[in-house]
Write a structure and sequence with these properties.
alpha+beta, 8-stranded antiparallel beta barrel, 201 residues, 27% helix, Hypothetical Protein Pfu-838710-001
């Protein structure tokens, strides 16, 4: 189980080749090594948009066959980066996940809100992720190339070290490779998927 603050930049890609070009350059500079490949499938839950309206995103994800329940809360734009609370736990299904989330420090208001609700799946999406560990000027980061039929993006997530160094690296990537910040979350695109996109599970 884990909880904490998630800080990340998302960059939109038109093609996978754009992301691969960035990765190739960074590997040539010795900033990244070989990736860890994940097959990801995410299922999002809500009840008539009540959770979303309150700022909560509730998700079950399978990562190479391992099921993880995740609650995200309080998304803020931090100069182009997405900053939010994140709570995770291993779980076999959403009911077990909600029960275990209570032990992660998730906001009490979430459990009060969902108590009377009948949660349903409001969106599903699948994609592959190539995750690269990045060490830059003492900061530990993770760069992910996410590739699905509904979206392709580079995701740069802060892990530890100086936050200003993380921001500097993100800005350098954006300028050098002409990257465009992606404002839409995977959740919002999963909702669109639920209306006929081929990326639906």
């Amino acid at each position: 189980m884990c909880s904490g603050v998630e800080l990340e930049y998302k960059f939109r890609l038109k093609t996978r080749a754009e992301g691969e070009r960035t990765v190739t350059v960074l590997r040539g500079r010795g900033l990244i090594g070989d990736p860890v490949r994940y097959d990801m499938s995410s299922r999002y839950y809500d009840a008539d948009g009540i959770l979303s309206a309150a700022g909560f995103t509730l998700r079950m994800r399978r990562e190479n066959g391992v099921s993880v329940c995740c609650l995200k809360y309080g998304v803020r734009d931090a100069d182009g980066a997405r900053l939010r609370e994140e709570y995770e736990c291993g779980a076999d299904d959403i009911a077990q996940g909600i029960h275990k989330l209570a032990k992660t420090g998730a906001p009490p208001g979430f459990f009060t809100l969902i108590a009377p609700l009948r949660l349903v799946v409001c969106g599903e999406v699948r994609f592959t992720r190539d995750a690269y560990a990045v060490t830059y000027c003492g900061a530990r980061l993770e760069l992910c190339l996410d590739d699905g039929k509904a979206f392709r993006e580079l995701e740069l997530e802060y892990k530890s070290g100086d936050v200003a160094t993380f921001t500097k690296f993100a800005r350098e990537l954006q300028a050098e490779f002409g990257l465009i910040i992606e404002r839409e979350s995977k959740y919002s695109r999963a909702i669109l998927n639920s209306h006929g996109n081929a990326d639906i599970l």
